[in-house]
Amino acid sequence: xxxxxxxxxxxxxxxxxxxxxxxxxxxxxxxxxxxxxxxxxxxxxxxxxxxxxxxxxxxxxxxxxxxxxxxxxxxxxxxxxxxxxxxxxxxxxxxxxxxxxxxxxxxxxxxxxxxxxxxxxxxxxxxxxxxxxxxxxxxxxxxxxxxxxxxxxxxxxxxxxxxxxxxxxxxxxxxxxxxxxxxxxxxxxxxxxxxxxxxxxxxxxxxxxxxxxxxxxxxxxxxxxxxxxxxxxxxxxxxxxxxxxxxxxxxxxxxxxxxxxxxxxxxxxxxxxxxxxxxxxxxxxxxxxxxxxxxxxxxxxxxxxxxxxxxxxxxxxxxxxxxxxxxxxxxxxxxxxxxxxxxxxxxxx
Length: 349
Description:
This protein has helices spanning 19-32, 54-63, 68-82, 90-100, 109-121, 168-175, 206-209, 213-222, 255-260, 266-288, 322-347; strands spanning 6-11, 48-51, 136-143, 148-153, 185-190, 196-204, 231-236, 301-305. By secondary structure, the protein is of the alpha/beta class. Strands 1, 2, 3, 4, 5, 6, 7 and 8 form an eight-stranded mixed β-sheet that branches. The longest helix has 26 residues, at 322-347. The chain is globular, with a radius of gyration of 20 Å. 40% of the residues are buried.
């Protein structure tokens, strides 16, 4: 066991609910500005940042030293344009669903310009690549061309030469291309040797790693050769509402229930929540042993920041009402007031 911990930051997917981790980290950075050692950015405190979907956008932004406050403001100020096709009335929702039989709910163009411009702002007007990240990143996606999950990685291992040329904004768009919300992301780029490379049909990493904490753990163990006991992990969720269905007499379990009723895409909620819960269960097993028998002597340092949502708190991944989004973000402030001092002292020493 070494005296130096390997520190991982993990950020869940969740669409506009990314305001929760963004605002929580903004509150952390507000305290970091008081430091005298120059370590005032989130990136200065972690050896690896992993993020999926909206968490991937945040992870990449943080890796370039973009303040979490600016990421939060980007979401708040632009949600109504990113998700401008979102309908509120029942009739509008039904019309939207009919259109979505053939088309995704939203176009990616505005979000792509937004993310690209923000990344360029912190890289002298040029498009930064994964090679340019100032701390290591691991960004889950699903590759529809190859038909398998994949993780886009900055070159933190000598063998990692596949992804380093990819413009960061394209990686961000790939990991956030959630099925039914956006089309799969297809593009191409010129690598650093001047060769054109295809980058086609990539979709949201949330289909297999909405909570990417386990991705971060495995990368640390295998790519960095870190011992399990030397891990220090801060994992940020985007809020959760337990998916339950207590109607024992329900007979109609068709597409209307799973994708339309009350404007909820229950099928997608279920997939994302169950994957995240499974990751938390396995991390608990690694962290505290079977039935938490090792809770008094955990195997590594681990904190999970998340919030349980009631019906009034819950928002869809493509919510566009600024007031509702800000109310959701306030949950991060409540969590920070509850545990912020503990998290600062434990992970930002």
